[in-house]
Amino acid sequence: MIFLKLGGSLITDKSKSETPRLEVISRISNEIAHAIDQRSDLRLVLGHGSGSFGHPPASRHKTHLGAASQAEWLGFAEVWSAAQRLNRMVVDSLIECGLPAIAFPPSSSVISKDTVILEMALEPIKLSLDAGLLPVVHGDVAFDIEQGATIVSTENVFTYMARQMRPDRILLAGLDPGVYKDFPDSEEIFATITEDDLPKVTFTHTDAPDVTGGMWSKVQEALVLAREYPGLEVRIFSGEEPGAVADALLGGKPGTLITM
User: Which of 137, 152, 162, 207 is the one with CA 20 to 30 A from 51?
Assistant: First the structure.
């Protein structure tokens, strides 16, 4: 079983509000279809970020910090609507490539506490895999029993799912070829990162809104999983190069490995 995330920076232009990279979404959909055709035993859960769709309204309304007033709940609904628009584009692209994709938005099944997921309905996702479908999750709003509302990233969702579904690999495809050793020069990446390497890492900064923590959050979530499940392979790599996602799904070892 593989969990694959398509980062918001990969499938949208994060510098322009609600700007999908439709040619990239289409290309990667075809690559996923190719990989599944090559490996009939591949059990895949796909996730994607919200990029320039969900992050700008979430930042504007501070939905990740909670909701209480009518205006804040209206903001919650605005973020939800934006996230669903991008998700529909991704799912429609997958279906056009002959993939039986079906969306499982976290907003409909996640309960969190202080931004940490407590519950998520996983049985429908498991049944969809058994039926040969391609389940798709994504960054989304969620209800939080402490602060009313929050934002859950795809990495948050994958972390919760991994504890019950035990994937063999988690692949995080973005724009960067891995985690840089020498940011901002950005000429060399870490082949591997362990907890001991964290003090050496300078994480990238972007002016585009990102309410889920960016690369720092990705590495932290990956280390949590690596600590809990020795042998789990978590990789951060670029999906920008044609063929990179298909190669990763078929056993390639791109980018930076997060490990204990």
Answer: 162
Q: Please report how the helices 154-165 and 123-130 are oriented relative to each other, as an axis angle in degrees rounded to 10.
A: 70
Task: With beta carbons less than 8 A apart as the criterion, state whether 238 and 255 touch.
Answer: yes
Beta bridge partners of 173: 6, 237
Name the pTM for this structure.
0.91
Instruction: Output the CA–CA distances (angstroms, integers) from residue 22 to 18, 61, 129, 240, in the order listed.
Output: 12, 27, 26, 13
Q: Is the bond preceding residue 242 a cis peptide, omega within 30 degrees?
A: no
Helix spans in the chain (H): 8-11, 22-38, 51-61, 70-96, 123-130, 154-165, 214-228, 244-249
The position carrying tokens 């290309």 is 27
Pairing, β 148-152 against β 140-144: antiparallel
Q: Which amino acid is at 121?
A: A
Amino acid, single-letter form, for residue 139: G
The DSSP symbol for 140 reads E
CB contact at 8 A, 175 and 166: no
pLDDT of residue 198: 77
Whether the CA torsion 82, 84, 86, 92 is positive or negative: it is negative
Residue span of the structural domain in which 178 resides: 2-258
CATH number for the domain that contains residue 226: 3.40.1160.10
Domain count, the chain: 1
Burial of residue 213, with CB atoms counted within 10 A of its CB: 0-12 exposed, 13-18 middle, 19 or more buried: middle
Interval 28-82: pLDDT, tens: 999 999 999 999 899 999 999 999 999 899 999 999 999 999 999 999 999 999 9
